[in-house]
Each structure stands twice: as C-alpha cells, then as structure tokens.
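hey so i finally got around to running both of the ones u sent me last week. sorry it took forever, my laptop kept dying halfway thru and i had to restart like 3 times lol. anyway pasting them below in the order u listed, first the sequence line then the structure token line for each. didnt double check formatting much so if smth looks off just lmk and ill redo it

first one:
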Amino acid sequence: MPLEEYRRKRKFTETPEPAGHVRRAARSRIFVVQKHDASRLHYDFRLEIKGVLVSWAVPKGPSMNPAEKRLAIRTEDHPIEYADFEGVIPEGQYGAGVVMVWDKGTYEPKDGIAPDEQFRRAKIDIALHGEKLRGGFTLIRTGIGSTGPSERKRWLLIKHRDQHADPSWDIESPELDHSVLSGRTLKEIAENRSGKTRRLGWHLSQAQQRAGVKRKKNIGRELRRG
C-alpha cells in the first residue's frame, strides 16, 4: 500500500493530520511545499504522482537561483489531502511541530514523459505553476550507484535557467514568510491567529501583477491594430 508507512507513523486519534487515501489520477497535477518547524526547520516538497504526494524533505528549502543545488531527502508518500494541511502536530507525535502551506500550485512534466516514469528513472524534469515557485525544476537522485538505503534517498532540487530564475533569491525574505492558504506566519499558525490582512495584501499584489500583464497585452494589441 502506497500510504502504509505514512499511516504507520501516525496516531490519527491524536494528530490533526489527514489519514487520506490514494486518489485516481487527475488531469492536472498539484505540487505543494510546506514549511515545517519540527525538531529542525525544513521544507517538504511534494509532487502528486499516481494518486499520492511523493515527498522530499529539503533542509534549506527550494531556491529560484539555478546556482543553488538543494539537497532533498526522500520521505514517505503522503495523501493528496495533506496538500491543504496547515496546523500544529502535537508533541509526542511523529513530526511534532508547526506546518505551513508555504506554496501550492500545479505542475507539468517536461518532454512528455509521465512523472511516475521520470521518478523510476531517478530524474524528474517539471514546470511549476505556484505562487512563489515558477518555471522549470529538476529533481535528480544522487546515490544511484549506492547500496546504502540512506544514500539512495538523497536527491538534488535544481532550478532551471529560464525567465523565472532569480539569482537574488532569499527564502528568508519576509515577503516569502507566509502561508499561501491563510496568509499566516509559522508563529501565527502556532498561536492559531488570523493572517487575513497579510493574505489580502498578498493576493492583491498577485492580482496587480496579473492586471499589469493583461494591460501590456492589450496595449500590444492596440499598437498592432494601429
């Protein structure tokens, strides 16, 4: 069972995490990145593949700078429902700490190769359509020739050199330190406080960017007509 390890590690009578189930493959595939303040602060990068969220723990978090190769440690598959999980995992439970939905969106496999086949080949090339992460990324396993199980779990997450690349990327920037679902920071989630003002400000900013792109396109059409 794809979710056997996930369920074995958790007591769902004590943790608010979803038990979930394996879903049928959807036409659009989601990805999610969750900021997780557990025993060590890290980011969980998850891709929907074959009805579950195939997952990696990224200690330093993803980067939009192609020069930064991020270590990604393969972890157990999670249910699709986990993509919307945001809250506090109680002390004494596996992964105890605060979880934030740091980014979420859809993704497309590149070169017409299905994600599950790319995963089997130990190299995944995708285009992300998130609110913070956009454009091409590669996940590649580094311990292909290794016999040790820990080495086989080691991957690298690398941003492609495309129009979305950002050499000045800083994941610690205050502008990035909020949930794309609720607008809250880790501290606000831990204290169960609202992040409505921050959320409205973030989505307004995104709407303004989209409106600006639309205006540029309209101006371009008028110039061509003229």
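and the second one:
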Amino acid sequence: MNTSKLHSLIITPDSFIFTSKQLEEIRLKHPQAQEIFRAFLKGEKNRITPERFEVLDAALDYEGHFGADDLYILMKTQKSRVSRATVYKTLELLANCELISKRNFGDNMTRYESSYKRQNHDHLICMDCGRIVEFVDQNVKKLPEEISNKLGFDVESYSFNIFARCKNIKTCKYYKQR
C-alpha cells in the first residue's frame, strides 16, 4: 500500500470544510458582522457552519421586520438548503450577540430586524391595519435616561412601541377587510 497518497484530516469544532463557492459567498457579505458572529459562536462554544452565516446574511439583508418563517420561506425561494430549525436557532444566536433585535408588537409573534449598523429607533404599530412605522424622536430618546436617573438606575436598553389606530380606516391603503 502506497502511504504517500494518504492524508490525514483532523476536524475540530473550529474547523469545517467549505466548498470554494461557500467560502466566496461567506466572504462577500457583511465581513464585520461575520467576524462578530464568529467570535460570539466560538466564545459560546457553538458550531461555526456555513448555514449559520447564510442565515446571518439573509437576516441582515431583509428589509424591515420579519418572522423566522418569513426568513425561512424567503431563503427557500432563493434555493437555500438551510433547515427551518437552523433558521430558528441561528436567529436566537444572532439576537443574543446583538446583530439583530427581537421584537414583539402585541400580536404574539416574534419578529426580528437587523440592528447591525442601524440607528436606534422606535415603532408605531397600527392595531387596525398592522402597519409598523419606524421613527426617531429626540424627545423619546432622552426619556429612558431621564427616567432611569430619576429612579436610580443605569439604562441598558429600551423598547418603545406606540399602539394606535388608523385615523380613517376607509382611506387606509394598508387595511384589509377581515
């Protein structure tokens, strides 16, 4: 037996075999976010897989707010082979490392949005048509700090949602008859 052609391959939790296409796709999008995520995964002793980085890119590229199933369906229409379970698990990991934010707008559905390189903002949610409007208001931005100081706390984060109703539901272009 000619042993000169035998090669050993040692796979550790930090090493994975990627195709050149996978490596190229991983390198092209969001390199800083990928480094943050890679360091987080390594620090938390989670597996580093190309599928998780595919979910990262899809989540950061998604326009607006999305549910896990929304992202999974979008990825499937783009011929991704990522499983639904991987999408759900990866979104939780991305939220834990603060690359995306988890949102709940009062409809018992968890939504996500990219928080990577985005300005902090608040939300107005219409209870009639379901539209979500993002806004930034300097007065609102000051409130958490002022209230926390007054009550003897330091702000870690805050979430401000206004639940409202369309002023004229008949002319609302987002309202769908139920």
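quick thing i noticed on the 2nd:
Residues 1-15 have pLDDT under 50 and may be disordered.
anyway thats it, ttyl
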